[in-house]
Amino acid sequence: MNNYTMKGLVPAAYTPMFEDLSVNYDAIEAMASYLKASGVNAIFICGSTGEGCNLTTEERKKVAEAYVKHFDGEVIVHVGHNCLKDAADLAAHAQEIGAAAVSAIAPSYFPMNSTQVLLKSMKQIAAACPELPFYYYHIPALTNAGANVPEFLELAADSIPNLRGVKFTNEQIHVFLACKQAAGGIYDIAFGYDEMMIAGWSAGSKAYVGSTFNFMAPLYQALLDAAEAGNMEEARRLQHLSEEAIRVINSVGAFHPLVKTLISRLGVPCGPARLPMDSVTQEQADTLWNKLQDLGVGPYLNPSISLSRV
């Protein structure tokens, strides 16, 4: 098994689409170059941000192949699915194409409230990619999973040999800390709540996965640099600016479709998002851009790219 462990900023990459909502596979090369230019060394694909649950299994495989081919860094492939057989198939495919790691949410149609059932489910997926590090993706706001994650980690130490850790997207810092300490502290617990990065840092996180890294990774890197230097006043200022930017996006319209318009303005034809996410108008996109500039986010935006350079 490879030794990859998530660290630093890991954007949850978007999946570019055409206006007819088919996947724009050709634009993935531009998206990969754009994200690399922002200074990151790893990306997380086909998760919530990447609309993995809105893609067919075949589409997910083709998206993963394109990102692994074009991103100059490590690609973590999310393979979670309500059908565990399909999730395992996606995990095996990720290993076959050379992904750095695999991650999976819990099946979500039937609530995952049993730690033992969560263990069995993740074991089935992880067994399909034994050579890759595996991360359980804990996002109870979307999956309604109520299983005890620290207990899951304790049990998994003896039954899922390639479990590397958890992508933790939840505001319960006390649970995050318990996960960090589980099984003697052997697991990597990556923090996935953009608005609370400073809390994740203070709790000992070394890796952060986020949607808004897609357009303002420099802000979050500056936040981490300030915190590491002991300048907590500056770190708090930047965290507040991040939270304000996210509040503004949510006030204008549908979050992910609007962020895709920001990426398009910065040089990548990211396109719309599929239902059940709502569509956005050009007026909303313009309003958001102007509001973010007024807020002071401009200096912290990812560098723009020209498609002629891709």
From TrEMBL:
The keyword Transport appears for this protein: no
Origin superkingdom: Bacteria
Record carries keyword Phosphoprotein: no
Signal peptide range: none
Location (main, coarse): cytoplasm
InterPro entries xref list: Aldolase_TIM, DapA-like, Schiff_base-form_aldolases_CS
Gene3D superfamilies found in the cross-reference section: Aldolase class I
SMART domains cross-referenced by the UniProt entry: DHDPS (SM01130)
Intracellular or extracellular location(s): Cytoplasm
Family: Belongs to the DapA family.
Name the record gives this protein: Dihydrodipicolinate synthase family protein
